[in-house]
Amino acid sequence: MSLLRRWFDPIRSSWFYQKPIRKTVLSIDQGLSIHLRLDDVYSYLTVQQLPQLEEILVDELKPLKIIISSQAAEPPNAMSYLEWQNYCLNDAKILSKQHRFSFDETPEQPTAEALQQAEIILKNTPLRGQDFLYLLEDIFHMLWQKQYGKLRMLHAMASYHHKAQNFPERIFNDDPVLVSYFEIGGRQYHAVDDLLRLTRRLKQQKLLTDNPIFLINHIDWREHLISHAEALNEIQKLDPELDLYIALEDPISWLLLAYIKEELANYYNIHLKVYPLSYHGRDLFDWSLATRLSKRTEVTFTPFCRPTESASMQMAQLFYSVPEDQQIDAIYRILQAVWTEGKDLSYAPHFNEVLHELGVKTLFDQDIRKKLAENDHHCEMKSQPNFPVLELRIAGQNFVFNSLYRVWMIESIFSNVLEEKYKSENDIEE
User: Which of 139, 224, 263, 397 has the highest Cβ tally under 10 A?
Assistant: First the structure.
């Protein structure tokens, strides 16, 4: 690692962490827009919140600008289109159950004919404001709940009685859109995952007329879903296991591992196992996002020194040089040294310092690259769009999910497992 990067990164990271980014006032000159795709399942979930959101917007942000794209962006993480489609459907089903969105039990992608009919209906309708948003929601219900008969009837009426409208708050284009997102003041917010963050920002700038109540079953950081002693004991007795596949140069790996180890592992008796991945270039990240997540999770994140590929290899060698039953504590210490103390583990004095702390007498002498490649292969088999990848095993069931945005699923799954257990016991008694 270059001397410039080794010494400048901690200074830069400290500056980013202390920078009062939350006090920035976002411009509302371009209003608030929502980007959708009719064939995007996250857009389907999002439109169910739009009438309520627009109702509490200040007049300066009305009407909410609706931008509907006909073009899908390339799937992430080298996933095939089919893999990405299946992932989105399964993920949306989980989100709908957690947050009580309307959703079909057996979702399918809408047909090309249905999508074309829906677009014509929306282009031709003279409805505006709240009336248009309710129509938009109904159209998405028809598309995603296979109500094609209703759609054909509306399409016939729209084609016969109306012509294409030209409203400034309703735009149709072919800009590539991966998943639905909001945009205000040049910033983008994922339409489901960042909805609460967006409403906090709007409230901070006094752009809402009432308190926003969205995603009512959201599990916040360091607030446990299960606190009743008997229920907690039931989960602990099930000995849940959690595998983490992490890119060592990814700061999100540190935030996620630290949060789970400090807050969830002992509390729920989770047996953790970590699988380091080969270098994926994730040291080029969004600094402001990572520092904001650090503050939300209450995991210390500065000053750090971004690992290069050589540093990642040294981190992996340290990890595999300790006994398996000590690896969780070891990876915690290794990532902490990098992401909170600015240690460059490709620099011999820093490496030897951590080596001594871990009590390592003999370094792992097998092929590190081969070991990481094996982990990469197993991780790829999970077909997830982002890192870190998590696999939770409990009560004979396997659950695979990814990223810091889905850590809440751990406790949600525990709650669902308990509910199924109690229901099964009641059925037996009856």
Answer: 139
